[in-house]
Write the structure tokens for this entry.
Amino acid sequence: MKVGELMKHEASRTRADATLREAGRIMAEVGCGFLPVVDAHQRVVGVITDRDLAMTVTTADQRPASIAVENAMTREIHVTRSNEDLSRALRRMAEARVRRLPVVDTEGRLEGILSLDDVILATGSHGTARFAEAPAEEVLGALKAICNHPVLALELNR
């Protein structure tokens, strides 16, 4: 199965010069906790999560309306392409320990989002067009890798 068969094509996004207040409103309106950050050409230059937003707002001595997204976003991005095998995208999620990957074209422009949640919900949905062919152990492996917090892993291995 290819990423394009499961990805969400209607991806909300924000710009680096937007404020955290604006990004937070988009997240609240759409009901998501992740936004790709794009430039004027729709190329992905970063991502911002609800956690990034909350941590920045609670540690800064400023109002969310005065903090730019670029001051809170993650610049190290991990992406996938719509024609990539789902198994490979799941391995990328596991390696990067992320639950969502922006889907980009060959120029780095945003096409959609692949979410581990969507993969999980589609896995095993026999009889629908969204049945994921990814083996359940691949999905579980990706989820375990993402959930394995390095600090917690150190404490558990003592």
Summary: The radius of gyration is 17 Å.
